[in-house]
Amino acid sequence: MMWVDCVRGKVRATKGSMNPSERNIVKSLIAVAWADGKLEDPESGVIEGLLCGFDASKAEEAELLEYARTPRTLEADIPLDELSEEDRELLLANAALLAGADGRQSSEEATVLEQLSRLLGFDQEHAEAVIASAQDGALNLSSRSLEPSD
Hints:
By secondary structure, the chain is mostly helical. The protein has 7 helices and 2 strands.
């Protein structure tokens, strides 16, 4: 069955479903997006992209987009007990991308990444490596998209 996502009009062959880990990462990223007290369009776009990337069903998309309408905090809304080490790294990497979603990273966003890193239990060196890797990947992706195709 073909259906069109409510997010970005992406067409999928079948309805997807997120696993609990993916759901926790998206909820956590929503808290990261709210860390400065507001959820802006570029941040919403990243969250919507993750919903597509994680193959969220229509019901999951609707639920998580509704969840994103309410202000969230790092301390109260990140389910630390349910995040594996790999989940934590993925969360921090995506948070770094989220922090740069508007094309720049403010000092407030840098502070949020530092707070998140500590909350996730990463030492500074490990956190910096995860963040740098994510940012390098984003830069590589954007530069490839600007290269002419053969």
